[in-house]
Amino acid sequence: MIAQGLGESGHSAAVATLYEGDALARASRDGGTPTYHFGELPLVCRAFRRLRPWAMPFSEYDPWWSARASSWLHGVVEEFRPDILHSHDPHATLIAGRVARRTGLPWVVTDHSGPGTWRDDRDLPNRIRLRRYGHVLTRALAVMVVSHVARDELLGHYPWLADRTQVVPNAADPPRDFTPQPAQRPTIAVVGRLHAHKNHVTLLRALDRVRRVVPEVCLLVAGDGRMEGALRELARETGLEHNVEFMGQVLCPWEVYAKAWVAASLSRAESFGISVLEACAAGLPVLVSEHPAHREVTGGERNAILVDPDDVEAAAEALTRLLTDADLRHRLGANAAQRAREYSQEAFMDRHLAAYGDAMRTASACTRTGEDASG
């Protein structure tokens, strides 16, 4: 989205990705953005990922892999000659910080983590990761976060970053050719990774109750992840095979929203909730958990129905109301669409361009005075 927006603003951008099969990199490449691809993690790292998830901080940040990735990114910088470096993923941030220091490039970071993510895990690998990540962030000229909830969480760990941390919310403008074509069956959409904190289990259990009132209800589950097998098994155990469609990874979520009557997210942990914003932008009424990030994005009860993420009965009752009350759907959908317009692509790019300009001016001033730009 950033690369596309920069192109439309008359700037040039390139995307560099560390991982094999990165969906965002594929989308950037398909959109005509120059895309550089490092490759898979070393074999030992992939083995640790499957067998010992707690060892990932050690394996992913091993010196051999880090040195190779840093050398590769340095080569990308030498070839593309950017004015500024912008990293997103925590692993990529560790590499980008090293390259920025070596090349003297102005460097900014977007931190997408938030409450309930890896920073809340207090085991030894994550304590090491927390300390290392915080040390690297001190060298960034700006740290952007996607919500006030995410900002509070980040500064809870790294309060010394307060003077360079700013909220830059995500954007969700529907494609120009987006046309809702609701399915004939009452249809609920949930878009996101199939991970435990996304809480698809509660949604499936609620669907089992909704089916008693709306037998033909259909749940579209767009996304993949390590919970897929367990969710499919739960659907079988509850007799929901004909009421749930597992769609796998979907590169264009708007195709899913176009079919839906309602969207839902009962996530227990979010830094923002981009799928909720997209559903609002598509004009769908949304059922969301009472998570602070969801409340921030939707604007509260005027634009959405909020429930306890562990209250199956409340979720089922809300979904039943939405599916059986057309007036309620239309009112909440219209309010949600109006709320989503506050998160436009134009505002998103304006904030990024301002952050880039400030970082480059700071770096230029420090070069003239011989100071360290990162403070």
Brief overview:
This protein is an alpha/beta fold and 375 residues long. It is built from 16 helices and twelve strands.
**CATH superfamily assignment of the largest domain?**
Glycogen Phosphorylase B
CATH topology of the largest domain: Rossmann fold
Termini gap: 30 Å
CATH architecture of the largest domain: 3-Layer(aba) Sandwich
Mean pLDDT: 87
Q: Based on Cα principal axes, name the global outline.
A: elongated
How would a crystallographer describe the biggest sheet?
A: 6 strands, parallel
- Any idea how many domains? 2
- Beta-strand content bin: 5-15%
* SS elements, strand count: 12
The helix content, as a percent range, equals: 40-55%
Briefly note the structural class of the backbone.
Answer: alpha/beta
Radius of gyration equals 22 Å
Top-tier CATH class of the largest domain: Alpha Beta
Q: Which stretches of 5+ consecutive residues score pLDDT under 50?
A: 48-59
Put simply, the count of helices is 16
* SSE order, one letter for each helix or strand: HEHEHHHEHEHEHEEHEHEHEHEHEHHH
**Strand ordering within the main sheet:** 9-8-7-10-11-12
Please provide a written account of the structure.
The protein has 375 residues and is an alpha/beta fold. It folds into 2 domains: 2-171 and 345-369, Rossmann fold; 187-340, Rossmann fold (3-Layer(aba) Sandwich), CATH 3.40.50. 49% of the residues lie in helices and 13% in strands. The protein is built from 16 helices and 12 strands. The strands form 3 sheets. Strands 9-8-7-10-11-12 form a 6-stranded parallel sheet, sandwiched between helices. A 4-stranded parallel sheet has the order 3-4-5-6, with helices on both faces. It is elongated, with a radius of gyration of 22 Å. It starts with a helix and ends in a 6-residue tail after the last helix.
